[in-house]
């Protein structure tokens, strides 16, 4: 079996002796006109030794035969990765080089039968299961990094609540969840990941405490595939909403546009997802029969924090500064968060109210 060096010497000699044309020599060696010209110059100057590859790095030129072998092994085993193909053929090539060959011939993503098929599931009825998640770090040219926090119904894909924030804090997660509970009732269970906004590493997060108080079962996903519906929803949001609204210059305008888009998605967008049969989420979803009176919910779902008033008569709350009326510097006051409202209390009296900052 001839080595690459021997093939190169034979082809260059044939070109110089006129037995084959330069074009034929380029085809045999798989090289460009410039490379063939350089080969001829080196051979005339130093003979056959001038064609020897003297590079010390792990560099190996991929021959046409190598490419054919790579494609053959890939077609025989569509599941094989570029790394695995390199091991089977014992090719001293980087996996990226092999992957580029697969892409070049259109076989990089051949379909194959799963050994263990992916099991798809859908909740039996609306409100049996809600999915909650955070779509992280979407960069808007005029706004910077933004986060979309949303809750959807697993059975119908109906968007129960969604809003854009500058920070992915637990209070913002709670606000979106609180809005969904007030408008659509209580689900039987909630599915979310193990982020600190949802699950505390020690003790209980506010989210866990209030879910238990309301009788909502929490299911925590160990991998993104478990939250497949909301992960696919994120991809659709990026493609259909984000790219059309990158020029937005204020958070308020961004959320106003998203609210309009959300109405369109719920009521006009037909889905071919499992169990949807080309119906819109609004046609499939109905509010939960398990409901709490809004006043009772406001009483139950109150987040209380104690804060010290700074010298500039402000407090810090979840990454934002809030101004407090004069006369409370260095005092500790109670801060109650109810929905989108922040209530400041001192000596059992309400001293100030503000809107919760995004």
In short:
The protein has 358 residues and is of the alpha+beta class.
Walk me through the structure:
This protein has 358 residues and is of the alpha+beta class. It folds into 4 domains: 1-54; 63-115; 130-284, Nucleotidyltransferase, domain 5, CATH 3.30.420; 302-355, OB fold (Dihydrolipoamide Acetyltransferase, E2P), CATH 2.40.50. It has helices at 4-17, 22-29, 33-46, 64-76, 82-89, 95-104, 170-184, 206-214, 228-240, 251-268, 281-284, 294-300; strands at 130-140, 144-153, 159-165, 189-192, 217-220, 303-308, 314-317, 320-323, 332-338, 341-346, 349-355. A 5-stranded mixed β-sheet has the order 3-2-1-4-5, with helices on both faces. Strands 6-9-10-11 form a 4-stranded antiparallel β-sheet, with no helix packed on it. Strands 7-8 form a two-stranded antiparallel sheet. Strand 1 (130-140) and strand 2 (144-153) form a beta hairpin. Helix 1 (4-17) packs across helix 3 (33-46). The longest helix has 18 residues, at 251-268. The N and C termini lie far apart (70 Å). 25% of the residues are buried.
Order of helices and strands: HHHHHHEEEHEHEHHHHEEEEEE
The CATH topology name of the largest domain reads: Nucleotidyltransferase, domain 5
Number of domains: 4
Major sheet: 5 strands, mixed
Given this structure, which CATH class of the largest domain is correct? Alpha Beta
Strand fraction band?
A: 15-25%
Helix segment tally: 12
Low-confidence stretches: none
Q: Assign the CATH architecture of the largest domain.
A: 2-Layer Sandwich
Helix content: 25-40%
State the strand order across the main sheet: 3-2-1-4-5
Radius of gyration: 32 Å
Shape: elongated
């Amino acid at each position: 079996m001839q080595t690459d060096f021997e093939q190169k010497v034979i082809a260059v000699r044939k070109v110089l002796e006129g037995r084959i044309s330069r074009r034929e020599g380029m085809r045999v060696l798989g090289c460009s006109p410039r490379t063939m010209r350089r080969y001829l110059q080196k051979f005339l100057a130093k003979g056959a030794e001038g064609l020897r590859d003297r590079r010390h790095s792990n560099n190996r030129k991929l021959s046409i035969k190598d490419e054919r072998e790579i494609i053959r092994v890939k077609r025989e085993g569509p599941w094989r990765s570029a790394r695995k193909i390199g091991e089977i053929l014992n090719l001293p090539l980087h996996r990226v080089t092999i992957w580029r060959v697969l892409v070049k011939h259109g076989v990089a993503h051949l379909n194959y039968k799963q050994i263990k098929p992916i099991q798809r599931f859908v909740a039996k009825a609306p409100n049996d299961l809600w999915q909650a998640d955070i779509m992280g770090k979407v960069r808007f040219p005029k706004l910077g990094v933004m986060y979309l926090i949303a809750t959807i119904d697993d059975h119908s894909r109906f968007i129960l609540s969604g809003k854009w924030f500058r920070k992915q804090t637990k209070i913002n997660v709670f606000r979106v969840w609180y809005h969904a509970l007030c408008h659509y009732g209580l689900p039987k269970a909630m599915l979310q990941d193990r982020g600190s906004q949802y699950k505390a590493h020690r003790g209980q997060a506010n989210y866990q405490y209030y879910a238990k108080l309301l009788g909502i079962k929490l299911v925590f996903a160990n991998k993104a595939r478990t939250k497949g519906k909301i992960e696919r929803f994120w991809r659709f949001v990026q493609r259909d909403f984000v790219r059309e609204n990158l020029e937005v210059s204020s958070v308020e305008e961004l959320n106003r546009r998203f609210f309009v888009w959300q109405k369109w998605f719920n009521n006009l967008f037909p889905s071919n997802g499992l169990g949807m049969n080309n119906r819109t989420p609004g046609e499939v979803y109905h509010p939960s029969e398990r409901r709490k009176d809004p006043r009772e919910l406001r009483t139950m779902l109150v987040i209380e924090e104690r804060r010290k008033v700074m010298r500039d008569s402000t407090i810090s709350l979840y990454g934002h500064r809030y101004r407090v009326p004069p006369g409370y510097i260095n005092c500790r006051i109670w801060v109650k968060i109810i929905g989108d409202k922040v209530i400041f209390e001192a000596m059992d009296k309400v001293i100030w109210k503000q809107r919760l900052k995004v």
